[in-house]
Amino acid sequence: HTYMPVKLVPDLDESILHKSIYDYIHKNLNLKFGHAYRKIRANKADEYDQKYLNAKKDDPILELEQIIWLTNGQPVEYSISKNRYDTRDYVLLDNNRF
Question: Which CATH number belongs to the domain containing residue 65 in this structure?
Answer without folding.
Answer: 3.40.1410.10
